[in-house]
Amino acid sequence: MTSTSNPRDLRAELETLTTEAFRPDLAEIDQLPTLDIARLMNGEDASVPGAVASRLPEISAAIDAIAERMARGGRLVYAGAGTAGRLGVLDASECPPTFNTEPDQVVGLIAGGPEAMVTSVEGAEDSGALARADLDALTLTPADTVVGISASGRTPYAIGAVEHARAQGALTVGLSCNPGSALAAAADHGIEIVVGPELLTGSTRLKAGTAQKLVLNMLSTITMIRLGKTYGNLMVDVRASNDKLRARSRRIAALATGAPDADIERALTEAGGEVKTAILILLADVDGPTATGLLSGAGGHLRAALKTAGD
Q1: What pTM was computed for the model?
Q2: Which of 20, 44, 58, 125 is catalytic?
Q3: 115 among known catalytic residues
Q4: Measured between alpha carbons, how far is 44 from 31 in angstroms, rounded to an integer?
């Protein structure tokens, strides 16, 4: 899909979008006391989880499809422009420290490249060709998933990414905040979180951005749960890259095993700092190499490795 080149046509198109609708009831908002504006904004934000809840079946179906492909070595790729692109990059960047994923397992693409994270890159969002070039640099496979993100559901970069990925045989997800969007229609899995008009007309970093963040949280987090990156609700694949995360690693091992500190330190040392391996050492009473082998044989799932160790 290409962008609408005629400004008048584009204006008419925007006027049909729920996310761009004008709220006459808020036309005097700049005259209100700050506390009243804050209450209004908070009330608007409170409606977002309900809009997400109405699309949980679609979100869950997408997660199961993503997890199945990632279990085969596939990647999760987010593609968007502006706020949507930044949210994708944010979610992707949190996966290595949280779930010990490789840097190329969850990737965030933003129209205009890294520069666009902090500044507007003129015309980048209007280019489907740019999205195709960005994806071609990743050499997509049918095991990969590309999630196009766009509040309006009409952004050419996001639609171009989904269309190109689908043509390459990859799984595609279209996340938008308008009903009947071109983005959702272009994807295998369309997720439309309709949050309604914004407090500030067309400022889709507000409710639409919040909705997108909530859905992206679900896509990555629940996928990682399905992939065995957690044990219960403990982040057993956390990467201990700083003092806080090293302390968290010890706490996670303690919560999972109930072992004394000295045993936890010994197990973590034997496991090379890998929390999941250390937990298996303690719970199954095995050495480091054995624990590593058990986890490898169980595809990284700690519960399955524990079951194998106990058989």
Answers
A1: 0.90
A2: 125
A3: no
A4: 18
